[in-house]
Amino acid sequence: MSSKQQIMTKQDIQRTLTRMVHEILELNKDLDNLVIVGIRTRGAYLAERIAKKIGKIGKIDIPLGMLDITLHRDDLDLNNKMPIVNETDIPFDVTDKNIILIDDVLFSGRTIRAALDEIMDFGRPRKIQLAVLIDRGHRELPIKADYIGKNVYTTMTESIGVRIKEVDKKEEVFKI
Q: Does the global pTM surpass 0.90?
């Protein structure tokens, strides 16, 4: 039986997102050209929060998009299950935009690679930066986050769980 170790509380998550927003603002002065794209499911909700915080501080509406990377995954044939595909919603032109791509946990890099492939289907952005709540290491692809909420070192047999209120009715990050 595995034990659960809490890594972040609701307050920790809120503080961390606020810090990440300030880091994003420091490195992205041109808010008129900035867009936020979240990876479904939990990355999309984190992206909403980050876009709202940037908008409030910068006094601007930040365009927000959501990606479902299911059909861009490189392991579709390996699961032998019918994938559940959710909606991708990018209601703006990504060409020449500075995109902040948001996800909850960065692990192998394969989800991010799939997201990059899908974004490129929509146009050619000027720049894509990656923001993740948790970076747990163990990369299989050369992908690195520009903004990291927290580095959590894990073994290959451990897992990181992220719960957020919009999906799970509670907020926490934990390691199993």
A: yes
Task: Please tell me whether residue 97 adopts helix, strand or coil conformation.
Answer: coil
CATH 3.40.50.150, applies to 5-73+87-175? no
Convert the pLDDT of each residue in 42-79 to its tens digit. Answer: 999 999 999 999 999 999 999 999 999 986 655 555 55
User: Which amino acid is located at 11 in the chain?
Assistant: Q
Residue in 88, 13, 104 with CA at minimum distance from that of residue 53: 13
Residue ranges of the alpha helices (H) in 28-69? 42-58
C-alpha distances (whole Å) from 131 to each of 24, 38, 78 are 9, 10, 28
Cα 85 to chain centroid, rounded: 18
Give yes or no for a contact between 37 and 17, defined as CB atoms under 8 angstroms apart.
no
Distance CA 152, CA 148 (A): 10
Mean pLDDT of the chain, nearest integer:
93
Of 98, 100, 95, nearest to 112 by C-alpha is 100
- Using one digit for the tens of pLDDT, what is the confidence trace for 163-174? 999 999 999 999
Domain spans of the chain, in order of start: 5-73+87-175
| Structure tokens, 158 | 């451990």
Bridge partners, 129 (sequence order): 100
